[in-house]
């Protein structure tokens, strides 16, 4: 697709790890040789058939891929417009899309001879996925998690511990996801020889944004052939919609469609209590501006002096003040649209999905679904929307109960 | 010749090692921080590193993290860091000042504007932890053009293959990070550091100063003896964080400086 001299949206990043001005390698010198090693190893693995054979085998027999592409008939009927399909990545082992990427990184870590895996986690889904794959391969696993999230997400903390991981509550800064990432980086800079940092989203220094995107792209690749199977050869979605915190499930769905100009691409950020209110949201693209944090340049929530602000969302998985650099670039080039959905709208979508489709979604994809609820009625009935149901809601029932005023204590 | 170059020329002529101290700008408040800063040269400090507070100091240990938080909570901004430098310069035209911190507050301000203001305020060098040589076009090259030294960190993971790249656009001095880790962590050993400094000095004429993990006058002496000088940060910041009076903070700085200068 040729627009403004851009022939393809799928060639990034460049050799400096940039998507336009975004991305890069903004890390301390101690880490620089490590990420160059990782880049070299990943480049080798990418074209190594045995690497992908191992991935495919585990995706199939351990994760349960391909995940179904499900036509949601009652939701479609209720909304009265475009047909709504759900990509059911919540049916993966461990209950979310996170494991798609973790498998790739852990196989890579094993190829590199690393014996100790560290990760950051917000809601705990990436932490659980990392702890799971480490248990499977007998690797030491340390997960950094904001102290506040450790309290909020007790079931996931217990899961990680059952799986043999050490969960470190992070009290530095304000004890949130971004502070967990800071502490993971501090661990990595200290334990450079044996440790592999398994990042959970399409952010961080190059090559992480591209590598995590590549591993998650299995989502969009499956959607392509699954939709053709159900709707006829060559039929592409008219719209793809996904929720965005750091943006890994969205990049995974979007990437295989970037060069199909007929496919409209929409990312949904967490609007919290509303993007107009003073900083009670996590909408980096709609409410932030470009800055440098955690190894990459991207849109960040920050004050006038360049100090990073805390995000706010009902969903702990979207609670990050940045966004993957490729999203920042897709936003600036106009290839993808980014909107925001408030907590209240996400809660409404959550309940509707439970009642109409018998699927309890996580709060993250509930944001995507809430936008589908706005969009579908405005589109003709022969159009197709695919939304990414990237996680299941078991982890969120306590939060939702609280917001609905339901007493869970028996 | 920058103030940094002039300082090293003088120290070389005197046959002395450099003592570099780090404090966080505005910790615990601007007035106290400025009082400490003004007392550093008389306490024996040859070069002052002034921290620019940042919410997310990925390379720093708890001591300097907390110092940054105290400064930000007391209302510290980049404007005020620059004001501190101007106030200091009004009474001291020779002691080099190196701003140390992270890129985002500089990027947010705009590199050109920042460099113009930094030059005008009397800043001599920059250490920006999250700008490796791969990102030299961002700030390193423009800073050198503006006459400000860009001081690079070399680390134990910087192998011989990579060292030339790290040294290429470095000026003023080379800051050797003595350990893999964060500030204020494990103690550096002179026996480990010596060969590393020699390895770097074989590739550059710039002075090599060693930092991270130096907390006592004895350690300052031991490390300075195998390099061109040493940096102490967390040990000083810890005193400030404990609320010690300025005179007591400076007395400890003087003891550390004496250690380094006796090397």
Automatic annotation (TrEMBL), chain A:
Gene3D superfamilies: 3.40.50.1100
GO molecular function per UniProt: tryptophan synthase activity
Top-level taxon: Bacteria
Cofactor(s) it depends on: pyridoxal 5'-phosphate
Reaction equation(s) it catalyzes: (1S,2R)-1-C-(indol-3-yl)glycerol 3-phosphate + L-serine = D-glyceraldehyde 3-phosphate + L-tryptophan + H2O
All residue ranges annotated as the Tryptophan synthase beta chain-like PALP domain in the record: 64-391
Modified residues (N6-(pyridoxal phosphate)lysine): 98
Listed InterPro entries: Trp_synth_b_CS, Trp_synth_beta, Trp_synth_beta/beta-like, TrpB-like_PALP, TrpB-like_PALP_sf
Signal peptide: none
CC annotations in GO: cytoplasm
E.C. designation(s): 4.2.1.20
Enzyme class, UniProt record, top EC level: lyase
CDD domains with a match to the protein in the record: Trp-synth_B (cd06446)
Pathway: Amino-acid biosynthesis; L-tryptophan biosynthesis; L-tryptophan from chorismate: step 5/5
Keywords for this protein: Amino-acid biosynthesis, Aromatic amino acid biosynthesis, Lyase, Pyridoxal phosphate, Tryptophan biosynthesis
Role of this protein: The beta subunit is responsible for the synthesis of L-tryptophan from indole and L-serine.
Family, per entry: Belongs to the TrpB family.
HAMAP family, per the entry: Trp_synth_beta
Assembly: Tetramer of two alpha and two beta chains.
Protein's name in the database: Tryptophan synthase beta chain
Classification of source organism: Bacteria, Pseudomonadati, Pseudomonadota, Alphaproteobacteria, Rhodobacterales
UniProtKB/TrEMBL annotation, chain B:
Enzyme Commission no: 4.2.1.20
Matching Pfam families: Trp_syntA
Keyword vocabulary terms for this entry: Amino-acid biosynthesis, Aromatic amino acid biosynthesis, Lyase, Tryptophan biosynthesis
InterPro entries assigned to the protein according to its UniProt record, in alphabetical order: Aldolase_TIM (IPR013785), RibuloseP-bd_barrel (IPR011060), Trp_synthase_alpha_AS (IPR018204), Trp_synthase_suA (IPR002028)
Catalytic activity: (1S,2R)-1-C-(indol-3-yl)glycerol 3-phosphate + L-serine = D-glyceraldehyde 3-phosphate + L-tryptophan + H2O
Organism superkingdom: Bacteria
CC annotations in GO: cytosol
Keyword Transmembrane: no
PROSITE patterns assigned to the protein according to its UniProt record, in alphabetical order: TRP_SYNTHASE_ALPHA
Subunit structure: Tetramer of two alpha and two beta chains.
Family: Belongs to the TrpA family.
Biological role stated in the UniProt entry: The alpha subunit is responsible for the aldol cleavage of indoleglycerol phosphate to indole and glyceraldehyde 3-phosphate.
Name by which UniProt lists this protein: Tryptophan synthase alpha chain
Organism: Aliigemmobacter aestuarii
Lineage: Bacteria, Pseudomonadati, Pseudomonadota, Alphaproteobacteria, Rhodobacterales
């Amino acid at each position: 697709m040729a627009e403004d001299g851009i022939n393809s949206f799928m060639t990034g990043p460049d050799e400096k790890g940039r998507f336009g001005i975004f991305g890069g390698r903004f890390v301390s010198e101690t880490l620089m040789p490590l990420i160059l090693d990782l880049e070299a190893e990943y480049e080798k693995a990418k074209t190594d058939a045995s690497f992908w054979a191992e991935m495919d085998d585990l995706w199939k027999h351990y994760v349960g891929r391909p995940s179904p592409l499900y036509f949601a008939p009652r939701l479609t009927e209720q909304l009265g417009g475009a047909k709504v399909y759900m990509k059911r990545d919540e049916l993966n082992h461990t209950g979310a899309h996170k494991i798609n990427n973790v498998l790739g990184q852990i196989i890579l870590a094993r190829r590199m001879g690393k014996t100790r895996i560290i990760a950051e986690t917000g809601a705990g889904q990436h932490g659980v996925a990392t702890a799971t794959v480490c248990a499977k391969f007998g690797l030491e696993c340390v997960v950094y998690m904001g102290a506040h999230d450790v309290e909020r997400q007790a079931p996931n903390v217990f899961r990680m511990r059952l799986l043999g991981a050490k969960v470190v509550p992070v009290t530095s800064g304000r004890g949130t996801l971004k502070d967990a990432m800071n502490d993971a980086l501090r661990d990595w800079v200290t334990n450079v020889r044996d440790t592999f940092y398994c990042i959970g989203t399409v952010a961080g220094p190059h090559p992480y944004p591209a590598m995590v995107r590549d591993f998650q792209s299995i989502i969009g690749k499956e959607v392509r052939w699954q939709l053709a199977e159900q709707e006829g050869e060559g039929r592409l979605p008219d719209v793809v919609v996904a929720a965005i915190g750091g943006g890994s499930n969205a990049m995974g769905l979007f990437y295989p469609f970037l060069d199909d100009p007929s496919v409209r691409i929409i990312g949904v950020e967490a609007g919290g209590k509303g993007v107009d209110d003073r900083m009670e949201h996590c909408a980096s693209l709609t409410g932030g501006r470009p800055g440098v944090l955690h190894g990459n340049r991207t849109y960040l929530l920050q004050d006038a002096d360049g100090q990073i602000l805390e995000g706010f969302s009902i969903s702990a998985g979207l609670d990050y003040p940045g966004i993957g650099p490729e999203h920042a670039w897709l936003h600036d080039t106009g290839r993808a649209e980014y909107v925001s959905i408030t907590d209240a709208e996400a809660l409404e979508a959550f309940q509707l999905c439970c009642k109409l489709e018998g699927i309890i979604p996580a709060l993250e994809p509930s944001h995507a679904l809430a936008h589908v609820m706005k969009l579908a009625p405005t589109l003709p009935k022969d159009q197709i929307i695919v939304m990414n149901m990237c996680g299941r809601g078991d982890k969120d029932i306590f939060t939702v109960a609280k917001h609905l005023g339901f007493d869970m204590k028996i | 010749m920058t103030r940094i170059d002039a300082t090293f020329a003088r120290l070389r002529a005197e046959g002395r090692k450099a003592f570099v101290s780090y404090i966080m700008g505005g910790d615990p408040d601007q007035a106290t921080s400025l009082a400490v800063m003004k007392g550093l040269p008389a306490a024996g400090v040859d070069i002052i590193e002034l921290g620019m507070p940042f919410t997310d100091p990925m390379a720093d240990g708890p001591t300097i993290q907390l110092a940054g938080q105290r400064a930000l909570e007391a209302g510290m901004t980049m404007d005020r860091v620059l004001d501190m430098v101007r106030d200091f310069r009004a009474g001291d035209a020779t002691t080099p000042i190196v701003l140390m911190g992270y890129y985002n507050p500089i990027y947010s301000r705009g590199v050109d504007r920042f460099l113009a203001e930094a030059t005008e305020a009397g800043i001599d060098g920059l250490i920006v932890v999250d700008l490796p040589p791969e990102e030299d076009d961002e700030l390193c090259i423009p800073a050198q053009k503006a006459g400000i030294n860009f001081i690079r960190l070399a680390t134990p993971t910087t192998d011989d293959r990579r060292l030339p790249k790290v040294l290429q656009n470095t000026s003023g001095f080379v800051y050797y990070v003595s350990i893999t880790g964060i500030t204020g962590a494990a103690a550096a050993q002179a026996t480990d550091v010596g060969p590393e400094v020699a390895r770097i000095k074989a590739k550059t004429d710039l002075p090599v100063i060693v930092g991270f993990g130096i907390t006592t006058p004895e350690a300052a002496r031991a490390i300075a003896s195998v390099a061109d000088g040493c940096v102490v940060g967390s040990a000083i910041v810890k005193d400030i964080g404990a609320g010690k009076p300025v005179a007591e903070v400076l007395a400890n700085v003087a003891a550390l400086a004496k250690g380094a200068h006796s090397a």
